[in-house]
Recover the amino acids of this structure.
C-alpha cells in the first residue's frame, strides 16, 4: 500500500464500489445462464445492468473535485513476485467514461428487446461480460490489469458481430478482430518495455517516471498505433464501418459509445503523461491525421446511402475532434475532447438505436427504403431530429459544447487549424441534414408513400419501451448541452494536473534532429499564427 | 443604466414555444387550433409591450438561464433595439394569425397543424433572438429559426418545394457553420466573453489594442454569417424560399426570419464591435458600400422579375440592405434611419405579401402581367398594395419616407455623395418596379375578358385576408405621419 498512497485516495465508501461495479455484471451473466425463460431473462438483464448503473452512481455524487489523485482506490495483493497487485481507481477522466458505460448498458438491453430473436441467453451473457471488461479497462491502474480487460473486450465484441450480425458478419468480425489484435500486440510490447525500464506496472508511477527521448518515441509510436486503431483515426478507420454495419444494434451502440472512447482514453492515460516529449514532438503529425479524420470522415459520410454507414463515418469525424483536442495540449482542448467522448457516446449511441428501431420495422438500412417517415412516425422523427441536431453540434445540445471547446482551443493555439476543422463542422451539418431530409421528408423523385405499397400496413410509431430508451438520452443531450459545468468541474483538477505533467516533461533534452524539427515547427507556427 | 435581474424577459420568448404545444394538442379541431395560434400571438405581444415602460425609462432587465462555460451563458437582456424587433414581430404575428386562417383554408392546404406549430416556433425564435443577451444566445435562437422554418418552406412537399427548401437550408446552415461559428469562437478568443456591451453603442467588447486584422476578419465573418440578412452574395436563399405558402413569405420572409438576420447584424455592429472600432478600422464604410451594391443590384433584378412574389423577394433583399446601410453610416441620423426601417419595412412589406397571397387565393394569379383589371375586382387589396408600395418607394407621408429622410440626413452628415445618390437611384428603381403593378391592376384591361367584374373580396374567408392586409397598410401610413413611437425608443438606444 505504501508505494501507492502518494498517488491515490483510498476508497472512503463502506463498500468496494469499483470492484462491485466490475463483478456484478459477471455474476449476473453467470446466473443468467441458468434462466431458461427468455422473457425472464430479458428482465434479468435489465435488472442487472440497471443495478450496476445504480451502484456506480456514488462515483458521481461522492467524487472529490479537489484532487487529481485516483479515488475510490482498492488494492488486493495478486502476484507479489512481479510487484503486481490488483489496483483500481478513477480520476476525473475515467469516472465519466465509467458512468457513460453503466448508463449505456441498460439501454443496450432495451434496444435488443425485440431485435435479438435467437440465442438471447448467449447474447445477454456476452453483453454482460462486455460491460465488466469495459468498466475494468477504465478503472485499472495497472498496465497488466488494463491489458487483460482490454483483451477481454475483444472476444465478446467479436462474438456480438460474428453471431448476431448481418449478412457480411464474417468479414466484418474478422476485420475488427485483426485490426484490434494488431494494436493490442503493440500495446503489450510497450507495457513490457515500460516494466523493464521501471520495474512497476502501476500506471501513476509509470507516469511520474522520466524516460529518455528515444524510449519515449518508441513507446509513443506503439501506443499510438494501438489507440489510433481503436479511435479510429484515419487511415486506420476501415474496420469501423464494416463492423458497425454488420453488428446488431446493441453491438453498434457499445462500439460507438464505449469502445471508441478507449482510444481517446488511452491517449490521455498513456501517451501524453508517459511520453510527453514524444507527444509534443509528434503533435503536428497527430493533428494532421486528426484533421484528415475530421474532413475525410465527414466527406465519406456525405456519400453514404446506408444509414448505419453514414453514422459510422460520422463517428470517424467526431473522434477526430477528440484526438485534435487532446493534442492541442491546452485546458479547453483536453476538456473538450473528454466531453466530446461522452457526448459522442450519448448522441451516436442514440442514433444507432434509432437506426435499429427503423430496421426492425422496414428490414432495411438504406436511406431510400426509410424515407418519408414524417407522417407515419412523428414521435420517431422527433427523436431522430433531436439526435441529428445534437450530432452536428446544434447550439443548446451536448455536442455543441464540446465542439465549441475543441474549436476554441484550436483557434487559440493555431488559427489555421481552427479554420480547417471548421470544415468538419460544415460537413457534419451537411450529411446530417441530408439524412434527416431524406428520412423525414420524401426524396424528390416522388417515392413519398412507397411503404404503403410494399408493406401493406403502415409503420408503427415508437412503443413505450423505445420511447423510454430514447428519452433517457434526450435528457442527457439537453442537460449537458445547457449545463455542462458539473461535468467540466469533475475533469477540471485532473486535466490541470495532466497539463502540468505534460509541460514539465516537454523540457527534456532533445536530439539534434529533434531540435531542428522543433525549430521548423516553431517557424511554421509563427507564420500561421498571424 | 439600471439593471434588474428578472425572469420576466424570458417569458415573451417562452410563450410562443408553449403555444406550439397547445396547437399540437388541438390538431383535430381546427377552430381551437387557430384560436390558440392567435391567443398565443396576443399574449406574446402583450408580454412584450409590458416591457415598454422599462425600455423607455432605460431600465435593463437581465436574466441568465444557465452557464455553459465561463463567459458563455444562455442569457436574456432587454434593450430598445431588441424591443423594437420583438414588438414588431409579435404584433404582426397577431395580424398574420388571422390572415393564415383565410389563406390556409381558402386554399385547403394540407398539414395545417405542422404549419401553425412551425409558424409559432419561428416567431418564438425571433423574439428569443431579440432579447438575446450575448452572441451565443443569439446564435441559438437564430439557428432555431433556421430549423423550424424548413418545414414551412418545404410545405408543399413537391419537387419545387424540396428544391427551394434545400437551397434555403444550405445557404443558412452553411453560412452559420462556416462563418458564424468561427466568428463566435474568434470573439471568445479575443475577449474571453460573448456578452454584448451594456454600456451603449459606442464601445464594443473588443479591447482597444486588439489585433485589427483579426477584428476585421471576425466582423466580416459575422456580416456574412448572418445570411438571413441577405446581404449579397448571401441572398440566394430568399427568392428560393418563396415557394412557401404566402403567409410564410409574409411574416417570416419579410418580418421574422430576415429581420432576425438584419437585427443580428445591427446587434453585432453596435453592441459587439461598437461604433468606435468600426470607425477606426473603416469597417462601417466598407459595409455601407456592400449594402449599397446590394440595394442597387437587387432592385435591378427585381425590375426583371414578372412573378409578383419573386419581385417582392428581391425588393426585400434590397430593402434589408437599407437597414444595414443606415447602421453602417455610424452617425446618429443614419443609425436612426436604419433601425426605424426594421419596423417600417415590416409593416409595408407584410402588407404587400398579404396582397400577393390574397390575389393568389382569389384568382390563382401569380404573374404581374395577369393582374389587369384586378383593381376593380379587389379594390381594397390593391389600394393597400398601392399604399404599401408608396412606403417602399419612400413617398411622404407613408412610413418609408421617414426612413429615407433619416438615411439621407446620415449620408449628408458624412458628406458622402455616393451614398446619397444610391438612395436617390434606388428610390427611382423602387418606383420603377412597384408603380407598374399598381397601374396594371387599375388601368389594364383583363386579358381574359370573359371574366365578370365582380368583387372578389366579399366572402368571409377573403375578409380574413383583406382586413389584416388593409390594417397593415394603414399602420404604414400612420407611422409615416407619426413615427414618434419608434423615434422615442431609438433615442433610448442612442443614449
Amino acid at each position: 500500500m505504501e508505494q501507492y498512497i502518494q498517488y491515490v485516495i483510498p476508497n472512503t465508501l463502506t463498500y468496494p464500489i469499483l470492484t462491485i461495479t466490475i463483478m456484478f455484471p459477471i455474476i449476473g451473466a453467470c446466473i443468467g445462464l441458468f434462466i431458461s425463460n427468455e422473457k425472464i431473462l430479458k428482465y434479468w438483464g435489465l435488472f442487472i445492468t440497471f443495478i450496476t448503473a445504480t451502484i456506480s452512481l456514488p462515483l458521481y455524487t461522492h467524487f472529490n473535485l479537489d484532487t487529481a489523485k485516483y479515488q475510490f482506490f482498492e488494492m488486493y495483493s495478486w502476484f507479489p513476485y512481479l510487484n503486481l497487485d490488483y489496483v483500481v481507481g478513477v480520476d476525473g477522466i475515467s469516472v465519466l467514461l465509467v458512468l457513460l458505460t453503466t448508463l449505456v448498458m441498460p439501454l443496450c438491453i432495451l434496444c435488443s428487446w425485440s431485435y435479438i430473436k435467437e440465442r438471447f441467453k448467449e447474447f445477454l451473457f456476452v453483453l454482460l461480460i462486455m460491460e465488466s471488461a469495459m468498466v475494468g479497462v477504465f478503472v485499472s491502474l495497472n498496465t497488466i490489469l488494463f491489458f487483460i480487460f482490454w483483451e477481454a473486450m475483444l472476444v465478446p465484441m467479436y462474438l456480438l458481430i460474428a453471431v448476431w450480425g448481418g449478412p457480411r458478419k464474417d468479414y466484418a468480425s474478422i476485420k475488427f478482430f485483426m485490426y484490434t489484435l494488431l494494436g493490442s500486440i503493440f500495446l503489450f510490447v510497450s507495457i513490457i518495455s515500460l516494466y523493464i525500464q521501471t520495474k512497476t506496472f502501476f500506471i501513476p508511477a509509470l507516469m511520474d517516471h522520466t524516460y529518455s527521448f528515444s524510449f519515449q518515441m518508441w513507446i509513443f509510436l506503439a501506443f499510438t498505433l494501438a489507440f489510433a486503431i481503436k479511435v479510429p483515426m484515419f487511415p486506420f478507420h476501415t474496420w469501423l464501418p464494416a463492423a458497425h454495419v454488420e453488428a446488431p444494434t446493441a453491438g453498434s451502440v457499445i462500439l460507438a459509445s464505449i469502445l471508441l472512447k478507449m482510444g481517446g482514453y488511452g491517449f490521455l492515460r498513456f501517451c501524453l503523461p508517459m511520453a510527453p516529449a514524444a507527444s509534443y514532438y509528434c503533435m503536428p503529425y497527430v493533428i494532421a491525421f486528426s484533421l484528415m479524420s475530421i474532413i475525410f470522415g465527414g466527406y465519406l459520410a456525405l456519400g453514404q446511402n446506408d444509414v448505419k454507414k453514414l453514422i459510422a463515418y460520422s463517428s470517424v469525424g467526431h473522434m477526430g475532434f477528440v484526438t485534435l483536442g487532446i493534442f492541442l495540449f491546452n485546458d479547453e482542448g483536453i476538456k473538450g475532447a473528454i466531453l466530446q467522448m461522452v457526448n459522442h457516446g450519448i448522441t451516436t449511441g442514440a442514433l444507432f438505436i434509432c437506426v435499429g428501431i427503423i430496421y426492425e420495422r422496414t428490414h432495411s438500412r438504406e436511406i431510400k427504403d426509410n424515407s418519408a417517415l414524417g407522417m407515419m412516425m412523428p414521435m420517431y422523427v422527433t427523436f431522430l431530429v433531436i439526435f441529428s441536431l445534437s450530432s452536428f453540434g446544434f447550439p443548446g445540445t451536448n455536442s455543441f459544447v464540446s465542439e465549441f471547446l475543441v474549436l476554441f482551443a484550436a483557434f487559440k493555439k493555431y488559427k489555421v487549424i481552427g479554420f480547417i476543422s471548421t470544415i468538419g463542422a460544415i460537413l457534419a451539418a451537411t450529411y446530417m441534414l441530408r439524412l434527416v431530409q431524406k428520412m423525414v421528408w420524401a426524396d424528390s423523385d416522388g417515392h413519398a408513400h412507397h411503404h404503403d405499397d410494399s408493406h401493406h400496413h403502415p409503420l408503427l410509431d415508437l412503443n413505450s419501451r423505445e420511447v423510454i430508451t430514447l428519452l433517457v438520452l434526450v435528457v442527457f443531450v439537453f442537460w449537458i448541452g445547457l449545463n455542462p459545468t458539473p461535468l467540466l468541474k469533475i475533469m477540471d483538477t485532473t486535466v490541470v494536473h495532466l497539463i502540468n505533467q505534460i509541460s514539465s516533461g516537454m523540457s527534456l533534452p532533445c536530439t539534434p534532429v529533434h531540435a531542428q524539427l522543433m525549430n521548423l515547427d516553431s517557424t511554421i507556427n509563427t507564420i500561421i499564427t498571424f | 443604466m439600471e439593471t434588474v435581474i428578472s425572469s420576466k424577459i424570458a417569458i415573451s420568448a417562452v410563450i410562443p414555444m408553449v403555444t406550439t404545444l397547445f396547437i399540437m394538442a388541438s390538431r383535430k379541431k381546427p377552430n381551437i387550433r387557430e384560436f390558440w395560434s392567435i391567443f398565443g400571438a396576443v399574449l406574446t405581444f402583450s408580454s412584450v409591450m409590458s416591457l415598454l415602460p422599462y425600455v423607455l425609462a432605460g431600465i435593463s432587465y437581465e436574466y441568465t438561464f444557465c452557464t455553459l462555460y465561463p463567459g458563455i451563458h444562455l442569457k436574456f437582456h432587454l434593450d430598445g433595439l431588441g424591443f423594437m424587433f420583438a414588438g414588431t414581430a409579435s404584433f404582426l404575428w397577431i395580424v398574420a394569425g388571422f390572415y393564415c386562417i383565410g389563406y390556409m383554408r381558402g386554399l385547403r392546404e394540407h398539414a395545417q397543424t405542422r404549419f401553425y406549430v412551425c409558424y409559432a416556433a419561428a416567431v418564438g425564435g425571433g423574439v428569443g433572438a431579440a432579447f438575446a443577451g450575448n452572441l451565443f444566445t443569439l446564435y441559438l435562437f437564430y439557428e432555431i429559426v433556421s430549423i423550424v422554418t424548413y418545414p414551412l418552406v418545404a410545405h408543399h412537399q413537391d419537387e419545387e418545394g424540396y428544391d427551394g427548401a434545400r437551397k434555403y437550408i444550405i445557404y443558412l446552415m452553411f453560412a452559420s457553420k462556416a462563418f458564424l461559428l468561427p466568428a463566435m469562437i474568434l470573439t471568445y478568443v479575443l475577449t474571453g466573453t460573448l456578452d454584448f456591451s451594456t454600456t451603449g453603442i459606442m464601445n464594443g467588447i473588443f479591447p482597444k489594442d486588439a489585433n485589427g486584422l483579426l477584428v476585421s476578419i471576425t466582423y466580416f465573418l459575422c456580416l456574412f454569417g448572418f445570411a438571413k440578412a441577405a446581404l449579397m452574395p448571401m441572398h440566394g436563399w430568399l427568392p428560393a424560399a418563396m415557394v412557401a405558402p404566402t403567409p410564410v413569405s409574409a411574416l417570416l420572409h419579410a418580418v421574422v426570419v430576415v429581420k432576425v438576420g438584419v437585427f443580428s447584424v445591427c446587434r453585432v455592429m453596435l453592441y459587439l464591435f461598437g461604433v468606435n472600432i468600426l470607425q477606426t478600422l473603416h469597417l462601417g464604410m466598407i459595409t455601407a458600400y456592400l449594402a449599397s451594391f446590394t440595394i442597387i443590384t437587387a432592385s435591378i433584378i427585381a425590375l426583371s422579375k414578372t412573378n409578383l412574389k419573386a419581385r417582392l423577394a428581391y425588393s426585400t433583399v434590397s430593402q434589408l440592405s437599407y437597414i444595414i446601410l443606415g447602421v453602417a453610416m455610424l452617425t446618429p441620423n443614419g443609425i436612426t434611419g436604419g433601425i426605424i426601417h426594421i419596423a417600417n419595412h415590416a409593416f409595408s412589406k407584410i402588407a404587400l405579401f398579404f396582397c400577393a397571397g390574397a390575389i393568389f387565393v382569389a384568382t390563382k394569379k401569380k404573374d404581374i402581367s395577369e393582374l389587369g383589371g384586378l383593381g376593380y375586382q379587389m379594390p381594397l387589396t390593391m389600394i393597400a398594395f398601392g399604399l404599401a408600395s408608396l412606403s417602399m418607394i419612400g413617398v411622404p407621408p407613408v412610413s418609408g419616407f421617414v426612413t429615407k429622410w433619416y438615411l439621407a440626413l446620415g449620408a449628408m452628415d458624412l458628406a458622402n455623395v455616393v451614398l446619397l445618390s444610391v438612395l436617390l437611384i434606388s428610390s427611382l428603381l423602387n418606383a420603377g418596379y412597384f408603380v407598374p403593378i399598381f397601374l396594371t391592376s387599375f388601368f389594364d384591361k383583363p386579358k381574359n375578358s370573359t371574366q365578370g367584374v365582380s368583387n372578389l373580396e366579399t366572402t368571409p374567408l377573403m375578409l380574413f385576408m383583406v382586413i389584416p392586409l388593409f390594417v397593415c397598410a394603414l399602420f404604414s401610413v400612420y407611422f409615416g405621419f407619426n413615427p414618434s413611437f419608434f423615434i422615442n425608443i431609438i433615442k433610448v438606444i442612442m443614449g
Observations:
- The longest strand of chain B covers residues 60-69.
- Residues 282-495 of chain B form one domain.
- Chain B has a mean pLDDT of 88.
- Chain B touches chain A at residues 65-69, 72, 74, 136, 139-140, 143, 147, 154, 157, 159, 162-163, 166, 169-170, 173-174, 177-178, 181-182, 184-186, 188-189, 211, 213-214 (CB under 8 Å).
